[in-house]
């Protein structure tokens, strides 16, 4: 009875606090949405290459043999290297001044006797000069050239092989060099047309593959996670030591205050969750059934209880405000990273994947995805349920142990 | 100044660990994160579905090549099952080796030897496709060459038999023996850069972020010592409050600069990077910027609760706009002034002066004047 009375007392204190600081609430509600909105804007800006200017690649041909002339012309006219790369054929001086004026991203120069050396099997070096102001672009072109060169190395080995066997035939030298030059061009074109090997199909599954739906759900998850932490921190009360001592004299336990706090935080989270679900229903193109709502509310409730109990546990064992806040942040970041909301789980290392079943955020998001994206009727809530029970027990017992030690 | 040092030392004796912790926090946290990132980069495995319809030597060689690629874990599935798994996003993408693979290859046909399936969320698809393409292309050209030589033999009616597998083996041999083409990369005046993989996360940025956060947490004394009980005592020691705070911030700045230089030197030694004078100067400027910024914030805000929230949100914004999580280059390209406002980017791009520093100095000046008037009155 005493216990309930104390909890009630703390509840009234927290409701008072809520009334006093209610102006902060809209800020708390919109804060995660603003952060996520900012992230989305940045992501769109980062991964929208159509708005980027194409990279300009200058080719300096110092060899000027028939083969190199042909190759550079093919490159200049067509966009064989991809849509975002423009190839210009320039002489060395012009290319250098353009590089200095930032009009060219990278210069590739084919050295003198390039073709001749290739036929003979003498090692050749292709110089790539990057632009210091366009580091990333220079690296992209360098990597691209490296992959083209790997193909050419194979082609060259083949050409040398043909040369070797052609010498065994009674073929004349001029005929042979013609044959080689022809082979060279053929392998070059073959490298450029290598994409024909693969027939590509983009798989569209309206529910799972559409990034919009996937990320809408992720947004709900992220917002909910941030809300739980910020609501919890919203009800932070600084009790100095003398006040604590006085409370203890009256037989008030720390646990009672924490349970009152959990009750109010959880009920606020539930209200927010319901609002968010309505928003999700209106905005996202999910098909909800009444049964689904019941299940979603249940798993989300488990997640909220589990998360807040963990936070209460942190509050019990850490007394320093800054460390507490840091730990809250670390837990929230870990929950977000490990849930698979930002990066799908399959890209995680094997070692991490093994203990994902013990991460409440992963379990929760997985359950949500099963219900909303794959339209499953049965979901396994057992793991999340067990984690929640463990979290509550750990929190309560830690609080009791702490109380005993201070007595 | 000597009095400031003395009083601080007395205070620090009371709580040595808290200060030491926040001073070392940037270095320790950066080291921890970098080690974790390195571990993750080392042993992540991306499951890629492979359907094998054709069973021949050629296909087995291709599969062996794919299996030997680091970070790719081939999962052998049936086409229907694999497709479902790609849809459910349990596999990154699916590659089908068609049943006429060997026949087409030997006949010199290479169109649609392989079919691939991917979704819009297949992050590893492009590199995996390029990798498989390069192996198929290699096999294909070798086969083609062997066919070509066979053609030559027929044209010139040579009696000697040239075995095809031998030809292909010989081509591989030549390729292995001779390292024929090299591509070098250089940047204008600088010497050529080795084929070095740029780390996923810049350690300098990471360190700067943790430094900002650690310093913000350490600077909560600005608010705690604003307590009336303390402020009331100051007039007796004949020290103006602003002067008290200023000299202490100065003291903290000097000590923290020492920690900064140690951290940068250690980082440079561990990562085998060169320490340039401009980097050190930028670290110096970064420290001045964040300290003056936090000084202003600490003077304006009244309670530690609000102070922690504000500095937390600032850290979060700095993190999001730093390019650690989301690439920031497009934003910089469009709004180049960002690098002058964001302290982390100023440090990374070595721009020396940050706008926030100037703003903080000006507002400190205004604050000081106002407080002085109040004090005298």
- Helix content estimate of chain B: 55-70%
- Bulk shape of chain A: elongated
The radius of gyration over CA of chain B amounts to 32 Å
Which regions of chain A contain 5 or more consecutive residues with pLDDT less than 50?
A: none
Beta-strand residue percentage of chain A: 5-15%
Largest interface: A-B, 92 and 92 residues
Residue-averaged pLDDT of chain A: 82
Strand order of the largest sheet of chain B: 2-1-3-4
Beta-strand percent range of chain B: 5-15%
State mean pLDDT of chain B (0 to 100 scale): 83
Order of helices and strands of chain A: HHEHEHEHEHHEHHHHHHHH
- Rg measurement of chain A, Å: 33 Å
Sheet with the most strands, sense and barrel status of chain A = 4 strands, mixed
Assembly type: heterodimer
Can you write the helix and strand succession of chain B as a string? HHEHEHEHEHHEHHHHHHHHHH
Structural notes for this entry:
- The complex is a heterodimer of chains A (407) and B (377).
- With 407 residues, chain A is of the alpha/beta class.
- Chain A has helices at residues 2-20, 24-46, 66-77, 92-100, 114-120, 135-166, 173-192, 211-234, 241-249, 254-283, 290-317, 321-339, 350-354, 360-372, 382-406, and strands spanning 55-61, 85-89, 106-110, 124-130, 198-202.
- Chain A has a four-stranded mixed beta sheet, sandwiched between helices.
- The radius of gyration of chain A is 33 Å and the shape is elongated.
- In chain A, 32% of the residues are buried.
- The model of chain A has no long low-confidence stretch (mean pLDDT 82).
- Chain B is α/β, with parallel strands linked by helices and 377 residues long.
- Chain B is built from 17 helices and five strands.
- Chain B has helices spanning 2-14, 16-43, 57-67, 79-87, 101-107, 125-155, 164-177, 203-218, 221-224, 228-231, 241-271, 277-300, 304-320, 329-334, 338-341, 343-349, 355-376, and strands at 46-52, 72-76, 93-97, 114-118, 181-187.
- A four-stranded mixed beta sheet of chain B has the order 2-1-3-4, with helices on both faces.
- In chain B, helix 6 (125-155) crosses helix 7, helix 8 (203-218) runs parallel beside helix 12 (277-300) and helix 8 (203-218) packs antiparallel against helix 16.
- Chain B is elongated, with a radius of gyration of 32 Å.
- Mean pLDDT of chain B is 83; it is low at 190-197.
- At the A-B interface, helix 2, strand 4, helix 6, helix 7 and strand 5 of A face helix 2, helix 4, strand 4, helix 6 and helix 7 of B.
- Strand 4 (124-130) of chain A pairs parallel with strand 5 (181-187) of chain B.
């Amino acid at each position: 009875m005493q216990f309930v009375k104390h909890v009630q007392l703390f509840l009234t204190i927290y409701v008072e606090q809520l009334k006093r600081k209610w102006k902060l609430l809209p800020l708390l509600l919109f804060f995660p949405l603003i952060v996520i909105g900012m992230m989305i804007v940045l992501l769109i800006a980062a991964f929208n290459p159509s708005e980027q200017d194409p990279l300009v690649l200058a080719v300096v041909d110092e060899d000027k043999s028939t083969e190199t002339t042909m190759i550079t012309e093919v490159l200049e006219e067509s966009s064989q290297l991809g849509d975002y790369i423009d190839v210009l054929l320039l002489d060395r001086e012009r290319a250098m001044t353009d590089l200095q004026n930032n009009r060219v991203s990278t210069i590739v120069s084919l050295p003198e006797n390039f073709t001749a050396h290739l036929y003979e099997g003498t090692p050749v070096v292709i110089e790539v000069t990057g632009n210091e102001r366009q580091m990333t672009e220079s690296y992209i072109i360098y990597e691209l050239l490296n992959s083209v060169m790997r193909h050419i190395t194979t082609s060259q080995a083949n050409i040398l092989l043909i040369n070797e066997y052609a010498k065994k035939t009674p073929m004349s030298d001029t005929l042979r060099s013609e044959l080689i030059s022809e082979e060279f061009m053929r392998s070059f074109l073959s490298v450029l047309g290598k994409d024909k090997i693969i027939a590509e199909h983009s798989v569209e599954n309206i529910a799972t593959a559409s990034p919009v739906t996937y990320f809408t759900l992720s947004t709900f998850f992220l917002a909910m996670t941030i809300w739980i932490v910020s609501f919890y921190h919203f009800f932070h009360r600084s009790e100095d030591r003398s006040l604590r001592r006085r409370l203890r004299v009256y037989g008030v336990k720390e646990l009672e205050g924490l349970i009152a706090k959990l009750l109010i935080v959880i009920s606020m989270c539930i209200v927010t969750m319901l609002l968010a679900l309505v928003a999700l229903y209106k905005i996202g193109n999910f098909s909800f059934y009444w049964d689904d709502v019941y299940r979603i509310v249940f798993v989300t409730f488990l997640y909220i209880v589990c998360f807040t109990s963990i936070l209460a546990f942190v509050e019990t064992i850490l007394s320093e405000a800054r460390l507490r806040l840091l730990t809250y942040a670390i837990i929230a970041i870990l929950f977000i990273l490990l849930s698979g909301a930002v990066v799908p789980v399959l890209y995680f290392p094997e070692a991490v994947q093994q203990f994902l079943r013990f991460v409440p955020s992963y379990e929760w998001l997985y359950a949500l995805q099963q219900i909303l994206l794959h339209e499953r009727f049965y979901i396994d809530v057992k793991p999340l349920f067990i984690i929640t029970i463990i979290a509550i027990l750990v929190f309560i017992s830690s609080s009791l142990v702490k109380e005993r030690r201070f007595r | 100044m000597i009095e400031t040092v003395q009083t601080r030392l007395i205070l620090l004796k009371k709580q040595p660990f808290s200060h030491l912790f926040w001073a070392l926090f940037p270095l320790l946290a950066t080291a921890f994160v970098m080690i974790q990132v390195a571990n993750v980069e080392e042993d992540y495995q991306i499951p890629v579905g492979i359907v094998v319809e054709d069973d021949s030597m050629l296909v087995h060689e291709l599969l062996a090549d794919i299996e030997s690629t680091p970070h790719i874990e081939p999962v052998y599935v049936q086409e229907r099952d694999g497709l479902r798994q790609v849809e459910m996003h349990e596999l990154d993408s699916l590659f089908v080796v068609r049943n006429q693979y060997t026949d087409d290859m030997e006949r010199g046909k290479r169109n649609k030897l392989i079919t691939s399936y991917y979704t819009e969320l297949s992050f590893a698809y492009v590199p995996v496709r390029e990798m498989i393409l390069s192996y198929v292309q290699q096999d294909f050209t070798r086969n083609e060459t062997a066919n070509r030589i066979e053609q030559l033999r027929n044209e010139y009616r040579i009696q000697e038999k040239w075995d095809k597998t031998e030809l292909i083996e010989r081509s591989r041999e030549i390729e292995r023996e001779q390292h024929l083409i090299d591509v070098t990369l250089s940047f204008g005046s600088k010497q050529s850069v080795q084929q070095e993989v740029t780390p996923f996360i810049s350690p300098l940025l990471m360190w700067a972020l943790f430094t900002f956060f650690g310093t913000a947490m350490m600077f909560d004394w600005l608010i705690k010592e604003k307590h009336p009980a303390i402020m009331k005592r100051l007039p007796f020691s004949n020290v103006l409050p602003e002067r008290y705070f200023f000299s202490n911030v100065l003291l903290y700045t000097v000590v923290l600069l020492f920690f900064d230089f140690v951290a940068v030197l250690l980082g440079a030694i561990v990562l085998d990077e060169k320490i340039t004078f401009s980097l050190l100067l930028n670290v110096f400027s970064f420290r001045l910027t964040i300290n003056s910024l936090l000084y202003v914030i600490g003077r304006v805000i009244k309670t530690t609760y609000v102070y922690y929230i504000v500095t937390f949100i600032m850290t979060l914004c700095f993190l999001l706009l730093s390019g650690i999580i989301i690439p920031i280059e497009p934003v910089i390209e469009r709004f180049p002034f960002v690098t002058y406002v964001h302290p982390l980017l100023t440090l990374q791009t070595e721009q020396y002066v940050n706008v926030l520093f100037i703003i903080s100095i000006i507002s400190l000046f205004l604050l000081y004047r106002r407080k002085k008037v109040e004090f005298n009155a």
